[in-house]
Amino acid sequence: MTADLIHLDGRPVIIGGGLAGLMTALSLAPEPVILITKAPLGEQASSSWAQGGLAAALGNDDDPALHLADTLAAGDGLCDEAAARAIVEAAPEAIAALDRRGVRFDRSGDGRFELGREAAHSRRRIIHAEGDGTGRELMRALIAAVRRSPSITIIEGLEARRLLVEDGAIAGVLAQSNAGIAHFSTGRVVLATGGLGGLFFETTNPMGNFGQGLALAARAGAALADLEFIQFHPTALDGPSRPMQLISEAVRGEGATLVDETGHRFMSDVPGAELAPRDVVARAIWRHLADGHKVFLDARHSLGPRFAARFPSITAFCQASGLDPAAEPLPVKPAVHYHMGGIAVDAAGRSSVPGLWALGEVASTGLHGANRLASNSLTEAVVCAKQVAESLSGSPRTKIRRAKIADLPPLPDASAVRPIVSQSLGLMRDGPALRQAITELLPLAHSNSAAADPALVGLMIAVAALRREESRGGHYRTDFPLPAATARRATVRLDEAFAQARELTETPRPVRKAQS
Fold it and tell me: Tell me, what CATH number does 422's domain have?
């Protein structure tokens, strides 16, 4: 690949080929855009693996106000109510837009959408496709639409490495493939790079997803928000495969229960039981495992022989592991699943850096707060794609001077960072472990090694987690187990994180008395 792609200069560049990136590219048509992806479209994208569906108030007993109330309750005081309201109100039209693009949603005999229920939802409002194959079907339809679109230039096998910034604004993208470095000169970039589960050993995400978009944005000077809030899915199949196979929350929505090796249903006395918010269920399972028990998801009585028809993908991977979900309980444990934090963006998806937009899991819109409500994430990606496209289309087309190409470190590799992050940033956190992680991650983040970008992401999360001396949603501190009196969102830039990390590693910190 040549260093210069002058014939593409000035076009918006969308980084990421999941649901958020594809929908943004389609929403921008007929404006010419460039879509770059590290892997072939549909591969190594969390969107393709999504078993759950899209949340939208479509039932006769439902409305967006109820959807908003459930979202705010799950978010544990940290949602941006205005942003959340705008997204849930736009959700029904987002479903209709996908329907028009050829997504084959599951329907009942009368032609209406089949609506499921998942944790912390007060109504049945989850729209699925192909049972537990929603993500796969979404990606099938949208990839076909993108490949048909003459306005979208797709470049696969190209990994974005750096955003170029001049005079405080975006000036281009440096990307890398096996053929060399590619330089895109543009003042408009959209990050749709997904999450960071690959920083952890136990995750349901592609292992290569370490928060690339966060590193790109942070190095460009963007503000990041609420980085400490990481959602652990309660029910990943407990086995040797990595990434771990997810057993959708919809299984519990259909009545499956959590039991231990004695058959005891240990969640029965918790408000909401198996359909309590994800952070509550995940910590309950973690504690039960820590007490020496085994934990199983039991669908024998609720679904039994109907399991395979309702959840064909889950049935297939269980059977490949020698398990029959219709006839036996499935061993489960929590695993990293979703990042509520991300690049701080406004209602139009704009970051703090002019010319940089973000959406999907890499962005922090304020919808999810401290704990994402199940199936809100796919909906958010579709809704925000339209908002980002409208904002980007309305932005001025400034003439971009081709920026100086910087030297690049080796291609990123999270293997050196994964043990540190897995140990310190799990379901249960404490100050000493977080300080130790910062001490270990800081030199890696400053290095010119393959670990630099993954370490930078891990470092910023650890700093944010240490700063938040409370427990709320997906962030739990054993030394500060109670929520603070006032919920607050928190932002940080890379220079601030580095300064705080250096201060923590250079200056002894006085011991504070933990909450009782």
Answer: 1.20.58.100
